[in-house]
Amino acid sequence: MILWAACWYLMLPISYRDLELMLQDRGVEVAHTTLVRWTQACAPEIETRIRPHLCPSNGSWRVDQTYVRVKGRWVRLYRAVDSHGRTIDFLLSAKRNAEVAGRFFRKRWGSRIQ
Question: What range defines the domain where residue 55 resides?
Answer without folding.
Answer: 2-112
